[in-house]
Amino acid sequence: MFEKSLLAHKRILVTGGGSGLGAAMSHRFAELGAELLICGRRSATLDETAAQLRAAYNAKVHTFACDIRDANAVADMMAAIWQDGPLDILVNNAAATFIAQSEHLSARAADAILAPTLHGAMYCTLEAGRRWIESDHNGVVLSILSTSTITGRAFTMPSAMAKSALLAMTKSLAVEWGPKGVRLVAIAPGPFPTPGATGQLHPEGRDSGPAARNPLGRVGEHSELANLASFLISDQAGYINGEMVVQDGGAHLRSSGAEDLLHWTDTQWAAQRTARAKS
Ligand SMILES: CCC/C=C/C(=O)SCCNC(=O)CCNC(=O)[C@H](O)C(C)(C)COP(=O)([O-])OP(=O)([O-])OC[C@H]1O[C@@H](n2cnc3c(N)ncnc32)[C@H](O)[C@@H]1OP(=O)([O-])[O-]
Ligand SMILES: NC(=O)C1=CN([C@@H]2O[C@H](COP(=O)(O)OP(=O)(O)OC[C@H]3O[C@@H](n4cnc5c(N)ncnc54)[C@H](OP(=O)(O)O)[C@@H]3O)[C@@H](O)[C@H]2O)C=CC1
């Protein structure tokens, strides 16, 4: 669907690029000619994905074991990246969430979600943006958000807060940094099952799942998200700035996606907390 060289000569950092949707996007970007830089906390996962990208597309790939909750670690990673030349595109993909009754969230639990999802993405954006502006180099920031930015999301309140704040960042910087050559865009995915999302959001005991509730009767394919991301970060989308594209089969128009949890009993929630404590 795209020219094979759509992303040729682009250096792209995908946070959380070792697994899930981050890995799916990295595969598509590499296939379209990009040089990939992927970061996450688990080196082994990053190395495995990097090896796959090199074998499949002969791609140039660099890995960075970096916890984006740590602003100094993000600054060090960006400095290391820039030593080999400027980055062209940042994809804010790394995030964390879990379902919980908000009245049971401790401050530490809420921060465990806000720290990587909001602060980590903001640190990455500020570090990349400042370097682009200082060197007069054009840049693109794509943030992977959620339809919770539109509907809110019961039982994942900190994630909904973080994603909504990143949408505010996208819109704010689109105006502030647009004149300086930096473009910001976002995607709000609906359900795209990954081991991470399924493990955190769909424990046993939830209803039959997001496919049944979706107007299109199915969940998203990773290739669909990767294709949309490829377009949005490419020069072909050069006049799209400050926008979030929803890709959810129309699900958010029907519901916020968590209504089934309203019917969980206190016993089910207690079992969920116990299961979590045991794991
Ligand atoms: C909505 C759609 C959009 C978004 C989709 C996605 O993001 S999909 C992507 C999804 N992918 C990912 O999320 C991948 C990344 N996920 C992660 O890195 C981790 O799972 C984590 C950071 C979320 C939790 O890390 P960890 O378990 O090492 O946590 P920790 O030891 O650092 O404890 C910190 C505090 O949090 C508490 N707490 C923790 N879990 C639960 C829970 N289930 N229940 C209740 N509470 C929980 C824990 O008890 C502690 O509080 P306390 O007791 O001290 O007051
Ligand atoms: N899958 C879905 O249905 C949906 C996903 N999304 C969004 O899509 C994105 C990807 O989700 P998905 O692929 O499902 O999730 P995964 O759990 O599979 O991936 C999360 C990635 O983020 C990395 N990560 C987490 N915390 C940190 C950290 N502190 N520092 C650096 N890297 C970190 C993880 O690597 P490591 O553990 O090695 O650090 C992992 O590679 C997220 O932003 C999510 O909110 C939005 C709506 C729906």
Outline the structure in words.
The longest helix is centred in the middle third of the chain and has 28 residues, at 107-134. A seven-stranded parallel sheet has the order 3-2-1-4-5-6-7, with helices on both faces. The mean pLDDT is 96. Strand 4, helix 4 (107-134) and strand 5 (139-144) form a beta-alpha-beta unit. The protein is globular and about 55 Å long. Helix content is 48%, strand content 14%. The chain has a single domain (11-278), classed as Rossmann fold (3-Layer(aba) Sandwich). It has 279 residues and is α/β, with parallel strands linked by helices. Residues 15-16, 18-22, 39-42, 45, 67-69, 93-96, 116, 120, 144, 146, 189, 191-192, 194, 196-197 line the site of NADPH dihydro-nicotinamide-adenine-dinucleotide phosphate (NDP). NADPH dihydro-nicotinamide-adenine-dinucleotide phosphate binds next to helix 1, strand 2, helix 4 and helix 7.
Highest CATH level, the class: Alpha Beta
Strand content: 5-15%
**Strand order in the sheet with the most strands:** 3-2-1-4-5-6-7
The radius of gyration over CA amounts to 19 Å
The CATH topology assignment is Rossmann fold
What ligand molecules are bound, each kind once? (2E)-Hexenoyl-CoA, NADPH dihydro-nicotinamide-adenine-dinucleotide phosphate
Q: Span from first to last CA?
A: 43 Å
Poorly predicted runs: none
Helix and strand element order: EHEHEHEHEHHEHHHEHH
Shape: globular
- The count of DSSP E runs of length 2 or more, i.e. the number of strands, is 7
How many helical elements? Answer: 11
Mean of pLDDT: 96
Helix content: 40-55%
Structural class: alpha/beta
What count of domains describes the coordinates?
1
What's the main sheet like? 7 strands, parallel
CATH architecture grouping: 3-Layer(aba) Sandwich
Would you identify the CATH H-level superfamily? Answer: NAD(P)-binding Rossmann-like Domain
